[in-house]
Amino acid sequence: MGPLGRETWAQRLGTFRASPSAFMAGPEGEDLGRDLLSDLRSEKLSEPMKVALLALCLEYPAQLWPDAPAAEAAATSLLDTLVLLPPRPSALRRPLLLAATTALAAGGALSPASGASRRLLPLLLGLASGRDLGRSFGPASEQRPLQATAWECLRELESCRPGLLGGCLGLLRALLGREGPVQPLSLLLALALRNALVIQARAGAGLQGLLTAGDSSMEGGPWNWTLAEEGDVHLQPQAPSWPAAEEGECGLAALELSPEEARELRATVAQLLDASYLLTPVAQAQLLWLLGWALRGLRGQPPVLFKPQLVRLLGTAQLTLLHAMLALKAAFGEALFTAQDEALLLRRLTLAAQHPALPLPTHLFYLHCLLNFPENWPLGPTGEEAAPLLLGSQLCRGLLPSLLHEPMALLARLHLLCLLCMEEEEKEEKGQDQSPRHYLEELLAGLRQRAALDSGPRALATLCFQASYLVAHCLAGQPVVLTPLTQGLAQLYRTRPALAPHFVDLLDRVGPELQEPLRVALRQEVVSRPGREEALRWHLLMLARVADGDAQSATLNFLWAAATHCTDWGLQQALLRVCRALLRAGVREGLVDLLQALARQLEDPDGQDHARLYYILLAHLAGPKLGVALGPSLAAPALASSLVAENQGFAAALMVQEAPAPVRLSVGPRRAEGPVPVLQLQVEVLEPVYSLELRFRVEKQLYAPLRAVHVPCLCPGRPTRPLLLPLQPRRPAPARLAVRALYSTPSGLTCHAHLPPLLVTFADLFLPFPQPPEGAQLDFFEELWDSCLPKGAESRLWCPLGPEGLEALVSRHLEPFVVVAQPSVSYLVAIRLPPDSRLLLRLEAPQADGVPVALRTDDWAVLPLAGDYLRGLSAAG
C-alpha cells in the first residue's frame, strides 16, 4: 500500500481524535502506527502534515505503541527518519526528537538493553552540550532550538527514570557556565541533583564524586543505569502543597557527605541560584522547590544559600515566586526567615489581598496564603487551624467579609474571621471596637436575612448554609458562637420552610456540637406549627430527619393533624417516611394507632400497604430485628413502588443474601472404616456463624447426592469437632465437590456463600475387607485374587521407594488394608472400592530403588487410577 494523501490523513486524524479507543478497536487501528511511521518518510506529504502526525505521537503514545517492543520499534524508526533528513532547515527535527523520547518513556522501553535508547541518549547529550555530534546535526540556524529541545528531552527522561543522569552531574555543572540555554539546563541539573541525593540516601552512600566527574567519567556511556534501577520509584518533580512533602523512612538525613562533597554540593546549589534570575517565574519556582527539597533533610547544609534570593523574592509580584518563597519558609522556618521577614511577608500578603483591582483568583490565592501561612513558631498541635500570631484584628480590618463580596471571596474572608474569633477574647468594655465575634454574628444574620427572601435567588440560600457550615466547623468548641447560630437557623426555617433540603444537608455534614441542638430546635419548630398545604411537605421532610424518641407526644399529635391534609401520593409518602423514622428510633406507644388509622384512611393502595407493613413490623419484631429490617440496603435498584423501594432493608432481612465466605473448609485425615467412605472435614470461621448448613454437589454425577451437614454455632478461635461427610460413589473415581454455605450472621441476616471446591482423591475411597479368621488370611487373599479373573484385569508395575523403605511406606499408606504381612519379603493388600469393586496388591521383596507390585482388580477402569496412586506414594512421603 502506498503513502496516504493529505486528505486521507486529515480524515483519519479527525476520526482518531474523536474517539481514540474506538478507532484503535476498529479495522484501521492496527495499521495506524505503522502507516504513520512509514509516511513520515514520504516526500508526498508536506511538512505541516508530518508535524501533525508527530503531534499525534506526542499526545497518544500509549495508544499507538501499547507495549515495550512496539515502542522500541517506533523509536528506532523515528530516529532513522531523523538521520535521513536533508541538511537544509526543517521543522521536523525537534518534533522527531520529542516523539522518539516520548515513545521510549511512555512505552517503558528505556533500558540499557534497548538499541533505540543507546542511540537516542548520546544524540541528546551531544546536541545539548554542543559537541561535534551536535554541530554536524542539522544547519547552524537550528542548533540553539535543537539544543533547548535536547535539554527538555533529557529532563523528561530523568523524570521518568530518576538517577539516569546521576553520572552527568559534573558535566552539567561545567556546561552551566558556558554559552547556551540556561533555563532547561538549570532545571535538568536541579532535578538530577535532587534524584541523586534521594537515591544515594536510600542506598546509604555518599555522592561518590558525582559532582566533580567530568568528561572522563563518560567512558562506556554517560548513563548511570545503576542509579536509575535504584531510583525506579516515582519522584514527583512538581511542587507539592504546604507543608512540604515528607522524606519518609529513607530520608535525606541518612546521607553521609564528606567535607569535600558538602563543599561541592553547596557550590552547585549556589551556582544554580546565582543564575536563577535568568529563568522565567514558573521555572524559578520549580528550581527553588527542587533545591529546597534537596537541602531540607540534609544534615550540615544550612539554608543560608537561599538568603540572597529572599532580598529579590520578598518584593516580587509574581504569584509563582511568592508561592515558592512560602514553600521555602515552610521547609526551613526560622533557620531562613527572621521574625522581621515573617512580619514583612504577612503585611505584604494582607495589603495585597485588600487591593480592590485584584482578579478573583488572585484575591483567593492571597487569602489562601494567609489561611495557611507557615509560621516560624506555631502554637498548638500540628495540623490545627489557627491564625498567625502576628496577624491581629487591626491588620485584618480590611479583610473582614462583607455581603457585597463575591461568594468565594466572602467564604475565604469568613474563614479568616473565624480563625481570628478563635484567638481573640471578646472585649466587654464600653467604648472599644466591635469584637470579631460580634461582627461574625451580624454577618451571619445578614446572610440569613437574604436567604429568607421568598423571591431571592437560590445562590443566596446556598451561600448562607455554606457560611453556617464553615462557622460550625471552625468554631465547634465555642458554644457562645453556636448558640446564636442555632437560634438564627431555627428562625430562618420558621420564615422559609422551603429551605428544608438545605437544612437536611447541613445536619448530615456538621459535627455533633451543632447537629444536636439544631436538630432539637428544628423539631420544635415543626411540631409547634400546624400543617399547611404548601409548607406541609417541607415540615414532613424535615421531621423525617430530626424525629427521634424525644417529644413523642408532640410529634404524634403533629402527624395526626397532618394526616388529614395528606391527600396526594407525595404527601402520604412523606408522612410514612416520618413513621419509618419513628420506628427506627424505637417509638411504639401511640404509633400503632396512627399506623392502623393510616392503613384505613389513605386512599392510595401503595400508602395503605406501606402503613400496613410498618404496623406488622412494629407488632411482630423486637427492637434489634426491627432496626435491621428498616436499615439501609446495600443494593437499592430503581423501583416504581415506594413500598418496595423504601423497604429494601426489610427485604434484605428476609431474603438470603450472597456474601463473602466467612468459612474455611478443608479435608482432614482419612477414615478407613465403616460401610461407606467418609470424609473428615475441618472447618474454621472468621466471624461468628449461626445455623451453618453446608451443601455439597458432586460434579459429573460420579456420586449419589450428598446430604447437607449442619452446625448450630461456630466462633473464631474455638476448637471444633471434625464434620463427617459420607460418600456414596456410583463408581470408584476421584471427584470434585462444589460447596455452598448457608448461615445466619449475628445481626440476624441469612447469607449464602460459595466455598472453594473440595477434592476427593482415589485413596479417600479405600475401605478394608472384613477381618478373616485367624490363620485363614492367606487363603482369604488368594480366593479374592483368583476371583478377579477372567472378567477383571491384571497388571504389574514398579513402585519407587523413598529413603524410608517399604515398611514405612506400607505403614503410612496401606496398613489398614494389609491382609498378610511378611516384612522385608512381601505384603498382600486387599482394598474394597465402593460400590462393589476391589483392588488387590502383591508387594514383593524391595530392591535398591523400588518394589515390584502385582495388582488385580475386578474393574478394569480402576487400573490407571491404581497405577497413578502407587507411583505417587513415594512422592507423597
UniProtKB/TrEMBL annotation:
Residues 689-758 form the AP-5 complex subunit beta-1 beta-barrel domain. Residues 35-104 form the AP-5 complex subunit beta-1 N-terminal domain. Transmembrane segments: none annotated. Residues 261-626 form the AP5B1 middle domain. InterPro entries: AP5B1, AP5B1_barrel, AP5B1_C, AP5B1_middle, AP5B1_N. GO terms for biological process: endosomal transport; protein transport. Pfam families: AP5B1_barrel (PF21589), AP5B1_C (PF21590), AP5B1_middle (PF21588), AP5B1_N (PF21587). Residues 780-872 form the AP5B1 C-terminal domain. The keyword Transport applies. PANTHER family: AP-5 COMPLEX SUBUNIT BETA-1. This is AP-5 complex subunit beta-1. It comes from Odocoileus virginianus. The gene is AP5B1.
